[in-house]
Structure formats: structure tokens, C-alpha cells
């Protein structure tokens, strides 16, 4: 049975990084507690200084700068392009990763998922967009003061800055309309 709820940014729990170097606001996840047992997880991290990332063996990561000038990652000894706001970048969770900030503290948005359990599609949208999704889990994360989301013929839901709409149990082709700047994540069990 399809169900959805709206997660408000003001209610996200804060938890320490796996490596102890900072903290994260956890938006949502599929299962598990702490930093174990999840198949996918969404979070927002505050990075105040350049340094190392936690490793997540068996997971794929997609990171996007939300606020601040940006950063460059060094992944297994290789530097990435500069990662600027709303420019997603994917890498293996088991890689050795560190970041160099490009002009001060940043906030970033993270999708971590187990590719042996889920396939994932992440895209940033702006303006009015209409699409169809057959993903079993659909997440719409707002990066604007107001984003409107319509699922099928349901009433519109309004998201504030960093709020997230989470739909679970989709088993058909769902029409989705969004208005505003947001990230849409589609997850399907493999």
C-alpha cells in the first residue's frame, strides 16, 4: 500500500559522524539504527573544516553541496573537480576520501545506499516539472523556501527549506509534479 509523509527539517535528529569528526542531521532511512543496518539513508552534514570522511564499505554515496562555496574531494589519492552548490558527485563508500573546502564552511546533502539492495536515481530539478516514477521509494527534498509536490491526483503538499516528502510502497507508474527547486531521489529494491 502506498503511503507518504512530509518530514520537516526542524525535526531532523542530529547524530555524530562515524569517524567522530562532526555531526549530521539525519533526514530519513529505510531501516536500522545508528550507523548500521540501513539500505539507504539521507542526511545533511555540516563541514566546518577540511578533513577526512567516514568510510561506508558496501555502500555507494552521492554528495551535493547545499550551502557555501564548495569543496574538492580527494578520493583514493585522486582529486575531483571542484564541487559547487547543487552539483552532485557519486563515489564508493569504501574509498578513502578527504575534502578541501573552497572558502569556508559548507553544508552538504548525502545519499548513501547499498547497491546490492537498491538501485538509485538522483536528480536536481528547478521550476515546474512533471514526470512519472515506478520507484518503490520516492523522496523529494526541497532547497527552496517553498516547493509544491503533487502525487497522482492527490492534493498538493508544500515543503519548506530542507523539508522532505517520502513516499513508500509505490507499485505502479505514479505521476509526480513539482514546482520549485528540489532533489528527487528514486529508490527501487533490486
UniProtKB/TrEMBL annotation:
Pfam families per UniProt: HutD (PF05962)
Regions annotated as coiled coil: none
Matches recorded under CDD domains: cupin_HutD_C, cupin_HutD_N
InterPro entries reported in the protein's UniProt record: RmlC-like_jellyroll (IPR014710), RmlC_Cupin_sf (IPR011051), Uncharacterised_HutD/Ves (IPR010282)
Record's protein name: Protein Ves
Gene (name only): ves
